[in-house]
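User: For a reading group we're discussing how well predicted structures match intuition. Take Peroxidase. Before you show the prediction, I'll give you the sequence so everyone sees exactly what went in.
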Amino acid sequence: MGSRVLQLLVLWSLATTAFSLSPYYYKNICPQALPTIRKVVEAAVYKERRMGASLLRLHFHDCFVNGCDASLLLDPSPTIDSEKNSLANRNSARGFEVIDAIKAEVDKICGRPVVSCADILAVAARDSVVALGGPSWKVRLGRRDSTTASRTQADTDLPAPFMDLPALINNFKNQGLNERDLVALSGAHTIGFAQCFTFRNRIYNATNIDPAFAIERRATCPLTGGNSNLAPLDPTPAHFDTAYFNNLVNQRGLLISDQALFGGGTTDELVNTYKLYPHVFWNDFAHSMIKMGNIKPLTADQGQIRVNCRIVNN
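Assistant: Thanks. Here is the predicted 3D structure of Peroxidase, as structure tokens, for the group to look at:
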């Protein structure tokens, strides 16, 4: 009986190992894959610093909808209800052409399509953070690409900029992420910009906002019109730092969902910790990015390796 149990445990262990993601997945298949991705990302971020935040956001918005499977990259078609048209992505998700450029370069250097679009999103997110002065981490690889997408699920599962703390905690919990992951990953808002319509209600109606900050933001976000006008998510939108958390403590969070992390709730202490100890934030951010990248990946014979990230292989 004991040996039978041991045998089953060994088999289970081997199966888990075989189908789990690994930082070394492309080491023998295509050793130049990761340096090639980094080169294209660095060039894109050098050309436009904002692109770093955009590429990071693509990975996040991919993983939160049925796992990290590159479903976000699929264009609309008779059989695909594209996630690009969801409320959170329409007219705001960007960087798709950079992913196309990475895919073309990687397939050329590897000699064939062996790197999945889902893995490209995960590596490009890490390389974007590094390019903007943030931490690095070993991205676990070996994901495959979905053959379906769901705009409806994207509308349901992606966190909204208007959410309060309980809603945010629940949203992340549904993805297997805890409060520490919530605060650490929200720290991604240390880079990038938001559109006026996402923070208008806060700067005109909120009571938990620094008055001078509200006046400052109203200058480029009128009560009506200017929906797509941009404002930085923190004072240093092209640098990965802790200014975002400093903002929250001073009631200068741009989005309702940002300020929700600091205001008498269970996440206040963590915000203060990240503000005071950047290395703690960096370590937690890297850990939570790896954890997020592990959400329901397709592996082994599931899904496919798309030839074109925008369309399912025939």
